[in-house]
Amino acid sequence: MELIMASSLTGFRELVGELGGDGDALLRDSGIRPEDSGRTDVFVSLRSAVNAAERAASATGAADFGRQLALRQTMDVLGPVGVAARTAATVAEVFRIFDKFVAAYSPGIAIDVRSGFVDWTLRLDPLPAHPQTVELSLGLILGVLRRFLGADYAPAEIHIPHRRLTSEADYRRYYGCALRDEAAESGFRIDPADLARPVHRDALAHHYLTGYLDESLAGREVSAVRSVADIVGRMLPSGVVTVEFIAQHFGMHPKALQRRLAAEGTTFAAVVDGVRRVTAERYLRDTEMSLLHLSRHLGYAEQGVLTRACRRWFGATPLAYRRTLREEI
């Protein structure tokens, strides 16, 4: 049930367009609203984001799509985690901040720094093929290294778990170092002396930002209800809100998803019904949307289903409830 900040898709639509593809269509087909891409206040399915990157490479014929996309991103895509990293005392501490707080960006990603190696891991089960996501992420890490160590900095070696997608010369030109493909891990081998190099530190900002992230993540678990409700809300207008379809977004068996929801005291049907209720109330109160349009927006086949639902939720027809809401304003 892993999500990722939608800022991870910064530059996606523009790059796909420049390569002759339709970025909006690729995002929609992956279950992501195009207008959400690039936002730090919205989270999307991590599996869907991975799928979008892999499909974009195939659709555009750009084997180096992940590397190209990384050139359009900075550590700002990490949101508050990226801001906190700027306050570190050394390059190694930058990555320790990433390691400790990356869950605020995506709980499905792990970044580890050890003696002479910075490691990146995607935590999805089952794990999909994700070479573009690997190369995008390593390109972003390279950008972080060059931010603190200079624009010409080159690691000692890059490791990727898949077979190289283009020539070794391409990788050397991009990353500035030797390539080890089909490796056991994803990451960079780095001189320990480079990791120990000091960077400008704002001690006060460091204290407040890491404290904020500590509080944000303290005891936090990814809520199945919240994650499902988020995806359901986006998919309602399509009418595709079956447990099978939503489970597929999270790479889970439908029964496993139902068990997760049951552990939080609810069911898939109850989550869908709750999302529809909240959405209906908001549109009845705040807009002049027609009832036919609202019915379709909620994924109902006909307006009569909306009428029956409103009687159950609010004890009144949609129009009567809209009048009541307006009188309360």
From TrEMBL:
Species for this entry: Mycolicibacterium fluoranthenivorans
GO molecular function terms listed in the Swiss-Prot or TrEMBL record: DNA-binding transcription factor activity; transcription cis-regulatory region binding
Protein name: AraC family transcriptional regulator ligand-binding domain-containing protein
Superkingdom classification of source: Bacteria
Keyword list, A-Z: DNA-binding, Transcription, Transcription regulation
UniProt xrefs under PANTHER family: HTH-TYPE TRANSCRIPTIONAL REGULATOR GADX
An example Gene Ontology CC term for this record: cytosol
SUPFAM superfamilies with a match to the protein in the record: Homeodomain-like (SSF46689)
Residues in HTH araC/xylS-type domain copies: 226-324
Pfam families, per the entry: Arabinose_bd (PF12625), HTH_18 (PF12833)
